[in-house]
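re: ur question from earlier - yeah i can do the single chain one, its not a big deal. heres the input i used so u can compare w yours
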Amino acid sequence: MRYSMIFAKVAALLLLFALCISAPHARAQNQTPANAPFVGWTDPDTGLTWTKSDNGTDVDWNQANAYCSNLRLGGYTDWRLPTIDELQGIYDPSIDIPGKWSTGEADTWHVKGNLRFFGALWSSNQTEPMLALRFIFSNRVRQVDNINDNGRALCVRR
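and the output i got, formated as tokens:
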């Protein structure tokens, strides 16, 4: 009888030990997946994960960079402003998504992933110290603008 009690206690301790060791690993595995609806969309062609929508307000280029750099979403902290090529990579003329400019004017965005935003999106690319590139999804235009102009931030991560 005494050995069975000792065996039961040892078994219980081993089980507790196993649970303690596996708990941190289980938490890491159970982080929000990158393609969960509230996190964003992962482009199967590039492996890049995009936020599902823009930052929600017009900002200048420096604010757009700061927004993405400081974004904490879905358990991830490595969000950034995309390059102009990455933005152009999610342009798809065969997709029509009703959209609006921040002014309220209606337009149609041609973008993969059912992403939502209002207006031109800032890229991380600067062409000169006071100029940066934005991408417009209604007509596939790479536009050079003053970094103090207004645009939106759609963040990306690998």
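The first strand starts at residue 40 and ends at 42. not sure if urs matches, ping me
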